[in-house]
Amino acid sequence: MKSLFIALSFIILMFTNVIFANPLDTAISNSDRTADYIKRDQYRHPKETLTFFGIKPSMSVIELWPSRGWYSEILEPFLTTEGIFLAADFDPNYAAWTPKVIKRNIANRAKSKILSEMKMITLFIDEKPLYDRESVDMVLTFRNLHNWLKAELLMDVFNKSYAVLKPGGIFGIVEHRALPGTSIEDMNKSGYVTEKLAIEYAEKAGFVLIATSEINANPKDGTIHPKGVWTLPPSLRLGDEDKEKYLAIGESDRMTLKFIKPE
Q: How far is C-alpha 22 from the geometric centre of its chain's CA atoms?
């Protein structure tokens, strides 16, 4: 009888864990995620970051410029049952290198067991809106601000993000963080952006900053490197030169900012 009670208790416990499992934990621990992406969790803190932004499985969410799909592999299964997930890819006219990058990203995402059917939209650089006006709960972007700043499109992207969000919607940003006082010229060269500039642009678009976090901070990163942020992993632009030094630093120091579109 005692053995039967223990067995039944174990079954009930396992069943309870399945029923009440945190869907974000489930998405992050998904064995179908790309193995190389999982290794970067230690730097990118997906659970803490997405929890900070307040994401819920029932939300409609746009990720701007998902690249190879690092975050998309988490967001797609997390939102697929109750919510809506849209990934806004490069505009082919963004820059001379864009078609090549689009082709590379599509090829990489095609290898993913998770992203083969991900719904894509396009973030155009012209007057076209990002998506239906005031239609989504959250817009997220990870390590992209430096691209738009260099192309003088940062304000346009922020305005389009503001337009697509419902009142009360959240705009979440993770970006390589430049030292205070860094010039725009040096930001464009290095790939790091000051927190002050990011906040100023977002507030100019109409957003209100409601929280900042040091979740993705890296005090080992002094931000001054020969090849900018791309000196560090995962890019390692210097190849084997001082490789161990940059691996020891890890990925870049990053700001994590949470804005709201006022009601």
A: 20
Whose CA is closest to 159, among 121, 133, 186, 197?
A: 133
Q: Is the pLDDT of residue 99 over 60?
A: yes
Residue 107 Cα to chain centre, angstroms: 19
Residue written as token pair 């849209």: 86
Taking the C-alpha atoms of residue 93 and residue 41, their distance in angstroms, rounded to an integer, is 32
152, two tokens? 């003088």
User: Taking the domains of the chain in order of start, what are their residue ranges?
Assistant: 23-260
Q: What is the pLDDT of residues 159-173, one digit of tens each?
A: 999 999 999 999 999
Quick one: which of 253, 171, 155 has its CA closest to 208? 171
Residue 119 in this model has a pLDDT that exceeds 80 = yes
- Strands laid side by side in the 254-260 sheet: 120-122, 84-89, 60-64, 136-142, 165-176, 254-260, 208-213
Class of domain 23-260 as given by CATH: alpha beta
Q: For 57-82, what is each residue's pLDDT tens digit?
A: 999 999 999 999 999 999 999 999 99
